[in-house]
Specification:
It is built from 5 helices and 7 strands. With 125 residues, it is of the alpha+beta class. It has a single domain, classed as Electron Transport, Fmn-binding Protein, Chain A (Pnp Oxidase, Chain A, Roll). The longest helix has 9 residues. It starts with 7 loop residues before the first helix and ends with a strand. The relative contact order is 0.23.
């Protein structure tokens, strides 16, 4: 996925950084909810995932897919984005078997991650 801007610092952050904040809209409250989370860049596509279990950030994104992706490591930028749930097994497996997902595999098996880890792909708008 190309960087949402021509700014080379933003493109480099999307390629190399790991930790971001996201601001979602609370599914019940309608209020902004900001959390820190990791993201993965897999072959130029941006994903947010986690270990299996209920995640409020995912429930919020399923109710309202638009959110703000806050870069904060090598550069500071607030990027408007939209989340798309990733349900297809080949994409889930490719993301979770990728070298950038090593930490997740240290927590549980790849098969369990593929089966039930929360996952969205990020599209910048």
């Amino acid at each position: 996925m190309p960087a949402p801007t021509d700014d080379p610092a933003v493109a480099a952050a999307l390629a190399n950084d790991l930790t971001i904040d996201i601001t979602t809209t609370g599914r019940r409250s309608g209020e902004p909810r900001r959390i820190e989370i990791w993201f993965l860049n897999v072959d130029g596509r941006i994903f947010i995932t986690g270990t299996p279990g209920r995640r409020d950030w995912l429930a919020n994104l399923l109710a309202e897919p638009r959110f703000t992706f806050h870069l904060k490591e090598s550069v500071t930028a607030d990027l408007e984005a939209q989340a798309r749930p990733v349900d297809d097994e080949p994409t889930r497996r490719r993301v979770l078997e990728h070298a950038v997902a090593t930490w997740y595999r240290s927590q549980t098996s790849v098969d369990q991650l593929v089966d039930s880890a929360p996952m969205v792909e990020v599209a910048f708008v």
